[in-house]
């Protein structure tokens, strides 16, 4: 299945979102809080061997994801991020 096909399949996108979200929501609160985002991004940075995001960068990232500004990321807000990533992947794939 191509990234484009996944992107056009809402059921699939929702499923991917749910699996990823549940894996990242360590305290099962139903939201990704700032401390969870920090540990996710630090893990990513370590894996990619790049510098960990600064506190200011974390604020920027959270602001970007947190559409209703309640200080945490809901599953719906997280789905917007997944869709963004899939669109980028589809573009790369179709080059
Ligand atoms: Ca949480």
Please explain how this structure is put together.
The protein is mainly alpha-helical and 95 residues long. The chain has a single domain, classed as Recoverin, domain 1 (Orthogonal Bundle). Helices cover 68% and strands 4% of the residues. It has helices at residues 3-7, 10-24, 34-48, 55-65, 75-93; strands at 32-33, 72-73. The protein has a two-stranded antiparallel sheet with strand order 1-2. Helix 2 packs across helix 5 (75-93). The relative contact order is 0.17. The model has no long low-confidence stretch (mean pLDDT 95). Bound molecules: calcium ion. Calcium ion (CA) is lined by residues 25, 27, 29, 31-33, 36.
| Superfamily (CATH H level) name | EF-hand
For the record, the CATH class is: Mainly Alpha
Tertiary shape? globular
Strand content: under 5%
Termini distance? Answer: 16 Å
Unreliable spans are: none
Strand order, largest beta sheet: 1-2
CATH architecture: Orthogonal Bundle
Structural class: mainly alpha
| CATH topology-level name | Recoverin, domain 1
Helix content: 55-70%
Task: List the domain count as a whole number.
Answer: 1
- Cofactors and ligands present? calcium ion
Radius of gyration: 14 Å
Which sheet architecture does the biggest sheet show? 2 strands, antiparallel
Number-wise, the strands total 2
Number of helices: 5
> What is the H/E order?
HHEHHEH
Mean pLDDT: 95
